[in-house]
Design goal:
This protein is an alpha+beta fold. It is built from 12 helices and 15 strands. Strands 5, 6, 7, 8, 9, 10, 11, 12, 13, 14 and 15 form an 11-stranded mixed beta sheet that branches. It has a two-stranded antiparallel sheet with strand order 1-2. Strands 3-4 form a two-stranded antiparallel ribbon. Strand 5, helix 6 and strand 6 form a beta-alpha-beta unit. Helix 7 packs antiparallel against helix 8. The chain starts with a helix and ends in an 11-residue tail after the last helix.
C-alpha cells in the first residue's frame, strides 16, 4: 500500500506542468513571460524581466533561445502622446493622460489658486470641536507639523530607509505613468530605479500600506484623523471581517508622476503630508453638477483623452510643499502631479461629518473610485 501511494504521488507530481528555467509549476501570483521561439513560459524574476518592461518587448527570446536567435526585439517608439507609443503619429489622435506630452501641457496650463477655497490653519486649531461646528467641506492646509499630533520620520528619511524598514522583497504595486497602467515590482527593484538618475520611465508608487511593517512604528497619523475615524474607534475586535489597513500609506514618486482625476474610495476623506519634494493637487468641488459630469467622464471609453479639468467651471491648483499637510474632504475630485521627486505619507478615514456625501458616493453613483490615496 505504501509503495502504491508513493507511486500515485509521483504520477500526480509528474502530471503537473512545470515552466521556466526553475522548472516550477505555474504560480498565479508571479509574473511570467512567454518566449516567442520555444513557447515556454518564464518567471520575470528568473530571467530578469520586470513586468513593466514586458510591454516594451516586441519578440521575447528566453536565455536559451537568445544563444541561437539573438536578444529580444524591442518595440519602436513612434509617439510621445499616446499610451501605446507604437501608434503612428499622424496628428489625428488626442493626447492621453500621463504621457510626456500631457505632463508638459499640464505644466503650461493656468489655474485659479486654491488659496481661494482652502482653509489654512495651525495644527492646534484643527480640532474635532472646530470641525463639528464649522464642518469639513473644504480642503484644509496645515503648513507646519506643530499641534497636529502627526509623527513622522525626519526629512532625511530616504527610499533606502523605506526598503530597510519594509523589506526589499515586498511586492508592491507600481504605476507606469505614461501608460497609466499598473504592474507589480519588488520594493528593492523600485528603490534601485528611484536612486538611478537615468530613468527611462516614470514609475509611481501610491499604494504602499505599511501598517503591518516595522515602518509603522515611525508614523502616527494626525490626531484629528484618529479621533474621527470610524475604523479606529468603532471597528469591533471580534469582527469576522478583518480590520482594513488604509490609515498609513507611503507614496514615492519621481518627477512628472501623474495620477488622473479621481475620488477617494468609499467616500473616505484623506490626509497627505509631503516629507520631501513637492506635489501639485488639482482640486474640483463635489457639486451635484460636477459629480454628474465626473460620473459620465469616468465611465467613458475616451476618459484618458479628455482632460476633466476642462469640463467643469473651475479647477483649482494647490501646491503642497515639503512639510505641508493637506486634508481633503469626502467627494472632492482631484488629480495629482509630482512636480519634483517626492516622498509623502497619507491615509484614509471615514467619519461622522460627511455621512450624506459618503452614502451618495457609495450607494448612488457608479464612480470609478480609486482604492488608495492617489498622490
Amino acid at each position: 500500500m505504501a509503495g502504491a501511494a508513493v507511486a500515485a504521488a509521483a504520477t500526480a507530481t509528474s502530471a503537473t506542468p512545470v515552466y521556466c528555467v526553475c522548472r516550477e509549476p505555474y504560480d498565479v501570483n508571479r509574473f511570467m513571460i512567454e518566449c516567442d521561439i520555444c513557447k515556454d513560459w518564464f518567471h520575470g524574476s528568473c530571467v530578469r524581466v520586470e513586468e513593466h518592461h514586458a510591454v516594451d518587448i516586441d519578440l521575447y527570446h528566453c536565455p536559451n533561445c537568445a544563444v541561437l536567435h539573438g536578444p529580444s526585439l524591442m518595440k519602436k517608439r513612434r509617439n510621445w502622446h499616446r499610451h501605446d507609443y507604437t501608434e503612428f503619429d499622424d496628428g489625428a489622435k488626442p493626447v492621453q493622460a500621463g504621457t510626456r506630452t500631457f505632463v508638459k501641457q499640464l505644466r503650461a496650463r493656468s489655474f485659479p489658486s486654491a488659496d481661494d477655497i482652502i482653509l489654512k490653519m495651525h495644527g492646534s486649531q484643527l480640532t474635532q470641536r472646530y470641525l463639528e461646528k464649522h464642518g469639513f467641506d473644504v480642503p484644509i492646509m496645515v503648513p507646519k507639523l506643530d499641534g497636529l499630533g502627526l509623527r513622522l520620520p525626519p526629512p532625511t528619511f530616504s527610499v533606502l530607509d523605506v526598503e530597510r524598514y519594509v523589506g526589499g522583497d515586498k511586492v508592491i504595486d507600481v504605476i507606469d505613468v505614461a501608460r497609466q497602467a499598473d504592474s507589480k515590482m519588488k520594493l528593492h527593484n523600485y528603490v534601485k530605479y528611484f536612486m538611478n538618475p537615468d530613468r527611462p520611465k516614470v514609475l509611481n508608487v501610491i499604494s504602499l500600506e505599511f501598517s503591518d511593517t516595522k515602518m509603522s512604528e515611525l508614523v502616527e497619523v494626525p490626531e484629528i484623523a484618529r479621533k474621527l475615524s470610524w475604523v479606529e474607534n468603532y471597528w469591533p475586535d471580534d469582527s469576522v471581517f478583518p480590520k482594513p489597513f488604509v490609515q498609513k500609506y507611503c507614496l514615492m514618486g519621481v518627477q512628472d508622476s501623474y495620477t488622473d482625476f479621481h475620488i477617494d474610495f468609499g467616500g473616505t476623506s484623506v490626509w497627505y503630508h509631503v516629507l520631501w519634494g513637492e506635489k501639485i493637487f488639482y482640486l474640483i468641488k463635489p457639486t451635484n453638477e460636477n459629480l454628474a459630469i465626473y460620473e459620465a467622464w469616468s465611465s467613458s471609453v475616451t476618459q484618458s483623452e479628455v482632460y476633466f479639468g476642462n469640463k467643469v467651471d473651475k479647477c483649482y491648483k494647490c501646491v503642497v510643499k515639503q512639510g505641508h499637510t493637506l486634508f481633503v474632504p469626502t467627494g472632492w475630485i482631484h488629480a495629482v502631479l509630482t512636480s519634483q521627486d517626492c516622498m509623502a505619507f497619507g491615509g484614509n478615514f471615514l467619519h461622522n461629518l460627511n455621512i450624506g456625501m459618503q452614502l451618495r458616493l457609495v450607494l448612488e453613483l457608479s464612480l470609478n473610485s480609486v482604492t488608495c490615496p492617489q498622490v
